[in-house]
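dumping this here before i forget
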Amino acid sequence: MRRIIFLKYILVCFLFMCAVACDKEHPIANDNIPVVIKSDFSARYPMADISAFRKYSEFISSGELWQIDYTDGGENQVSTWYEANGTWKMTHTKLKDIDDLSNEAKRTFMSSMYGSAQIQEIYKTEREGIAGTLYTLFFEFPTKISRDVVHYVFLNDDGIVPLKIYMVSQQP
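structure:
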């Protein structure tokens, strides 16, 4: 049951990212961000150093989504999405290294056969209505077939791997 919920979570995140990415508009001025979004954002992320704002037309509901890109107190690159009414939807953070994972997620990855892999990128995703965090790790790990393969794995806060390791061939 827990695995099905987590798979639904991943599907929802993927669909949300696709819907948002397909209908981008130009960045807009800080003064145009609705007050309700500014106040919630300031309360949630007081150490944020904002770098960009964007308004999107949501593909599925024809509503508006607001994306705020910023650097957090730990100097991580972060994007947060809000609905026009100020409802927080999702936060996606690019982490600097494996030490930024939860202890269980780090222990799970490091004790796997991929523990010695060269990690390229780590992302942390938090979503409205879903307790916990989803970590996505992209790493290089040579296989018998090819040395130019990038793998990625999903881990939650508890270190559970909800999906298998995926391989993606790199383009030259």
